Amino acid sequence: MVKKTKRSNRWVNKNKKQRYAGIHLIAEFWSGRIIENPKEIKKILIRAVKKAKNIPLEVAIHKFSPQGITGVVLLSESHIAIHSWPELNYTAIDIFTCGEKAYPYQALEYFKKQFKPKKVEIKEIKRGVL
Amino acid sequence: MVKKTKRSNRWVNKNKKQRYAGIHLIAEFWSGRIIENPKEIKKILIRAVKKAKNIPLEVAIHKFSPQGITGVVLLSESHIAIHSWPELNYTAIDIFTCGEKAYPYQALEYFKKQFKPKKVEIKEIKRGVL
User: Fold this and answer.
1) A40 touches chain B (CB under 8 A)
2) With a cut of 0.85, is the ipTM above it?
3) CB nearest to A24's CB, from B3, B26, B88
4) Contact B82/A at CB under 8 A
5) Of B130, B106, B126, nearest to B22 (Cα)?
């Protein structure tokens, strides 16, 4: 499916010292709640996008057999993705948001509330550093 | 859209010393070829998946106005994403593949051949390290 969407060019301009496209949070959730319902994953993804003050464009969800789920939401400011392996108590979350008006950490906090992981590992990566 | 797909549980078992879900390559391409045609981006994504020896499930593409494109392909082993900002000569590429039989670097080499970036920055992140 191909759609055309207007996108503003809002590069992050941190204290006028460093310019970059956006923040990519790489989150590893361990031993959290197992959410296997595609409708619930979709709802969580859309709400996370709103927490990040981003604009959702399209959501794609795949439920695996016998377990596990993948959900990706395209944003006008990049993407948010969830991949879960319940058999290993592991959920991989990517929050890649662009522009000065994005709040990826608010999306992360929302995911934590939903998945309630016992252990969380986070990496913050600045993307497109000029 | 929700689909159910069978997924094998193939965790990477590196020299029987370190077990992890997969490799996530974070690639920053600078001053490469500008590819704004959604059909071409889709073709490139699918071919990259094949280079990585992964299985594509679904492709979502968004063309932005006045420029820029986003393409994400869901895999039975995670995802590959492209986001481009031609106005800044920047293309962000994510190659997140899981399992022992995935070849993310082969997908990366394929992307390099397609985009011909003058400058490339790569980060390799192991996801789901047990």
Assistant:
1) no
2) yes
3) B26
4) no
5) B126
